[in-house]
Fold each of these.
Amino acid sequence: MKTIAVIGAGTMGNGIAHVFAQNGFQVNLIEISQESLDKGLATITKNLDRMIAKEVISEKDKETTLGNVTTYIDLGKGVSKTYLVVEAATENLEIKLGIFKELDQLCDSGTILATNTSSISITQIASVTGRPDKVIGMHFMNPVPIMKLVEIIRGYSTSDDVTNTIMELSSQLGKTPTEVNDYPGFVANRILMPMINEAIETLYNGVAGVQEIDTVMKLGMAHPMGPLQLADFIGLDVCLSILKVMYDGFKNQKYAPCPLLVNMVMAGKLGVKSGEGFYDYSESRKAEKVADQFS
Ligand SMILES: NC(=O)c1ccc[n+]([C@@H]2O[C@H](COP(=O)([O-])OP(=O)(O)OC[C@H]3O[C@@H](n4cnc5c(N)ncnc54)[C@H](O)[C@@H]3O)[C@@H](O)[C@H]2O)c1
């Protein structure tokens, strides 16, 4: 039970690996390139250093946590003899279906296959495997080491046993698991994304500027971040993918992505990860300041 695999070392994958490793699990972190693995490990190290600076953990805890992470580019070797695989690769249906088809062939028959998808149907992902009862959504929130919620999504065929195991495991990580059913956007993004999209629409319509929209929501609604800053933090490409899944799934105009969001993603303005979104993050300190708001 102590060895798990995490697929993807991007915004979410490195955080998920960090949390499992800090809680004593052996983590096999899998990526498509050494460069992505190095970047993911550098982020884990930086986040552990910030925890040391805040006296939340010791230098020894940092070494132990990093020692619990092993990196792989070969998927087969990375998932071998693991009890659980948490997939946190790019939010793209074809990529996820491809990964789950491979996982079903490569993993032991008892291995639980979880996905951190923000919106893609767990039932559809499970349908490409021969073990739909062992496929489940394990939706961590960003930044993973800080945020308490894990939205646990049951696919149509997910078993009670697997759901209970993943609920218990999430509690062991110090998180609060919350069980929901498998419909587009689940609960978190079904409510969050229309708000972010409306904030972008408000900017697009010239009702107010970026700072003004975020100030209204921060000071008026006591949100820790304004919706435009939050969109930058999540990744504008991720926001667009989620809205498209909800738009396709419900065929309801209210989920149609704002044209400004579509244009920004096409222009490569993805938020913090690309250095520019609604705000400018070209100096690394600015990006760190955004993350600091959560810690
Ligand atoms: N960004 C958020 O705030 C957030 C929050 C909750 C859930 N999610 C979900 O988490 C998942 C990952 O999102 P992210 O924001 O970390 O994306 P990201 O773009 O930061 O990272 C994705 C990583 O996956 C890697 N990858 C792609 N294909 C792969 C493969 N076949 N094998 C191994 N690695 C592969 C990429 O190289 C990249 O490093 C998505 O499903 C997303 O919807 C994101």
Amino acid sequence: MTTYRALYVEEVAEKQFEQRITERDTADLPQGELLVRVHYSSLNFKDAMSAHGNPGVTRTFPHQPGIDAAGVVEESSSGDFKAGDEVIVTGYDLGMNTAGGLGQYIRIPAAWALQRPANLSLRASMQFGTAGLTAQLCINKLLQMGLTAQQGPVLVTGASGGVGSIAVALLASAGYTVVASSGKADQAEMLKRIGAAEVIDRAELSEPNKRPMLKERFAGAVDVAGGDTLANVIKSLQAGGSVACCGLVQSPAFDGTVLPFILRGVNLLGVDSVEIPLAAKQAAWEQLADSAELDGIAAINREISLDEVPGELRTLFGGGMKGHVLVNLDG
Ligand SMILES: NC(=O)c1ccc[n+]([C@@H]2O[C@H](COP(=O)([O-])OP(=O)(O)OC[C@H]3O[C@@H](n4cnc5c(N)ncnc54)[C@H](OP(=O)(O)O)[C@@H]3O)[C@@H](O)[C@H]2O)c1
């Protein structure tokens, strides 16, 4: 039994949730083959949803959120891992209904963990976190459709957020002309610094528009918004263009016609970073390791301590996130 510190969310009255940092005991963690001492985590929109009681993410409270964790195996009953192994754990049920990485310990099935790439430290891995993994998977989907830098600009929505800002940095470093859509005028300079060629106001794409098709503007897109934004992005793709759809910050529902699909042959590509096979995650983490030294990734990230997490999650929940937040659980 070991005492440790964690973010703990309790339902204090019906549908009223409180977040605090508290001491917990490893004896209270669920069964699992690996006990991992978590050194770094990162913040995601889903963590904010869990911490605010969203039943689509977390059904039972009290709860220790955190869909990301990077740490060292302390106990293992799996032949695939031994004490001292440095592992990355993202997605599956971590932080949803299983105690997550916003605590100094997690106990998990071995099938959720992967050995960190040799050239990616635990800290560097959480500078990406699930946001970076998702950005890389979105880009991979666009590449699978044959997107090249010569075809035209690539749009990133929610560009100042976690997935968006990392997608901007990765696409720009690969030579794409990136158009960043953001609702935060004060983030335009930062977005240009990390490689955006142009920054447009989120409102250009987020309003409902009855026209079935719009001017062809983008060869590809990474969309975190869903809703009317996704509908407008589909209508604004060049012939043969694709949008990788990974989020719902505006809305999970969207309206439209089949016309862009049948008249321009555009593609709507779904991206899931949570339940995909571990081997697919491992391959994307190897790609991210090659981008770890990018100036843009350092510029996007802010490091905070566990004590600062509740306040940051409130900002995140309100759509106010700027860049990506790395959580140092030893700080
Ligand atoms: N499919 C997957 O596996 C997967 C993985 C990770 C995340 N996600 C999803 O991807 C989305 C983004 O996650 P994240 O962690 O990057 O969140 P985040 O850090 O909060 O970033 C979201 C950004 O979206 C923009 N935004 C906020 N409200 C908006 C609205 N009403 N309409 C349009 N844009 C809005 C804001 O950027 P600007 O101010 O710059 O516009 C905000 O910073 C979430 O829906 C999350 O659940 C999915």
